[in-house]
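Re: zinc ion structure - here you go.
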Amino acid sequence: MQILTSIVVGFVVTQVSTLTTSAYLHRSLAHKAVTFHPGFAFLLRFFLWLTTGVKAREWAAVHRKHHAYTDEEADPHSPARLGWVRVQFTNFWLYRRAANDPVTVEKWGKDLAPDRWDRLMFDRGPLGLIVGTVLLALWLGWWQGALAFAFHMVSYVMLSGAVNAVGHTFGRRPYQNSATNLHWLAALTSGEGYHNNHHELPTSARFGFKPLDVDAAWWLIKLAQRCGLADVRELKNRTSLA
Ligand SMILES: [Zn+2]
Ligand SMILES: [Zn+2]
């Protein structure tokens, strides 16, 4: 029963992490599809710091490079070139290799200079992960907290890998690009599984174009917009979203 509690907590942490990754890192920072109120953005950044250890500028730079060179030699994680199994299981290292390249980060993250919060806190990824683990341990007890955090980290890394590997290999391709749409993957990744739609319209804050599509990050953005906490970019070509 205690193990089950750890797994459920780990799963929930992963879901909120994919939500913040998709809404903040991906749709807002990397593609400028939405701009969040600074206070709300801070909350999202704080949660990412606690649960992922990702440096925002690095993430956005590697991802922009993926869009610029999809399936070409410079694509940091192309299943067409490396095979989907390799991207699925080594995505973390493929990401790290690209993020450790200062030329990539300088070129593709030029507009994302670190602010004082990055310098003080958010660029210290391992510190955030330690604080996150300690908070879970204080809540659940040491071994249960550690288990929940470990379950979360493995799930988060595997789901990120799945978007890059499965989401460029299996599923529907309504638009002519190598990415695919998969409802089940979208449900597990806050809408990232509508990856074919996303490659078609990268600056759209909405990934699931149909009314019943499961696009949780879009729902969060709509809610934030209603509360005056988000400014969604208008697209010139809205017919694709009909
Ligand atoms: Zn892609
Ligand atoms: Zn993207």
